[in-house]
Target: O-acetyl-ADP-ribose deacetylase (Regulator of RNase III)
Amino acid sequence: MYEYGDTKLHIVEGDITKMEVDAIVNAANNTLLGGGGVDGAIHRAGGPIILEQCKKIGGCPTGEARITTAGNMPSKYVIHTVGPIYKDGTKGEDKLLYNAYYNSMKLAKEYKLKTVAFPSISTGAYGYPKEEASKIALRAVMDFIDEEDYIEEVYFVLFNHKDYELYEELLNQTFKEQ
Ligand code: AR6
Model:
C-alpha cells in the first residue's frame, strides 16, 4: 500500500470483476456494447443489466466516462471509459489515455464513491505500451487528487504478474522520490 495525500493506492494482481469496491472501471469501446478482454469479463460477471443500461447511454467518446450499476458483481458501479487505440504515439494517445483515467476519477467523485479499481486501460487489444501507460495512469490519478479532490482508495488491478511488477516498480520509484 502506498499513500498519496489522503488517498491510499493499492496494486493487486487478479480479476477486476471480483473487487469489492464502490466502482470498477471498464476499458470499453465507443459503442459501450461490450467486447473482449476486461470488457467481456465485466459484462459476463455483471449480467445483462449492464448491457441494458449501456444501450440507454448510447456510447462514449474516447477519453470520457459513463456509469452503470455492477449487476451481480460485488462492486456497486461500473465506470465505463474508453482508452485510445495506440497507433504510433503521435496521435494524441497519451492525452486520451490520461483523460480516460482522470474523467473516471471525476465521475467517481461526482457519485461520492470512496473506492475505485482500475484495469490497465488500452494495454490489451488497443496495444498501448504498458510501461508508458502505467506512468500515465499514475500521473492522472495523482493529478486528480492534487487538482480536484481525494478518493479514499484507488486500486490498480493487474491481470498478470509481469504487469503487477511493472506497477510495483513504478510506485516504489515514485514514492521513494518524495
Ligand atoms: N481483470 C483485470 N484486468 C483484465 C481482465 C480482468 N478480468 N481481463 C483483461 N484484463 P483489454 P483495451 C487486462 O483488451 O486494450 C475490448 O474488446 C488485460 O490484460 O481488455 O483497453 C473492448 O470492448 C490488459 O492489460 O482493453 C474494446 O474494444 C487490460 O486489461 C477493447 O477491448 C486491458 O485490455 C479495449 O481494449
User: Anything to note?
Assistant: The longest helix spans residues 93-110.
